[in-house]
């Protein structure tokens, strides 16, 4: 019982912030989730925590992780008419429009935030983009479908961040392996 009160108070505070300051709240939440995901990924891989990578994911979550999905999902919600299959239409728009753009943003800006040059970031983007996008479609389509069909619009970015936690673990591992492979070929 004693634990439920602080959790209840925190959820009340979170939902109040989400209602009053949606972009800020979603951005901070995304930053926390991205930071946690990359730390977990590094721990699972047995590596020491790389502060530069943690910073890159944290900054990406803060700048892009909350705001971009918020505006995309709001756009979808406003553009798609209230029809019987609205959630299905939004799902297909997310998978065909949002996912390709967001995967590209992720790969490019994570590299930039880690201190790589724009040329290096473009090279990483070209190297990983198609594989990461196809993997995104393969493994995240069902959770995204559930998100659009069963989660209220106000909470979709939050649920997407929870899904994103596991995606970040995968993405961080994929980027780390690509960097290690590049180092081994030198």
From TrEMBL:
The keyword NADP does not apply. The chain crosses the membrane at residues 54-76, 96-116, 128-148, 154-172. It is found in: Membrane. Pfam families: Mpv17_PMP22. It is a multi-pass membrane protein. One of its GO terms (cellular component) is peroxisomal membrane. The keyword Transmembrane helix applies. It comes from the Eukaryota. Keywords: Membrane, Transmembrane, Transmembrane helix. Belongs to the peroxisomal membrane protein PXMP2/4 family. This is Peroxisomal membrane protein 2. It comes from Chironomus riparius.
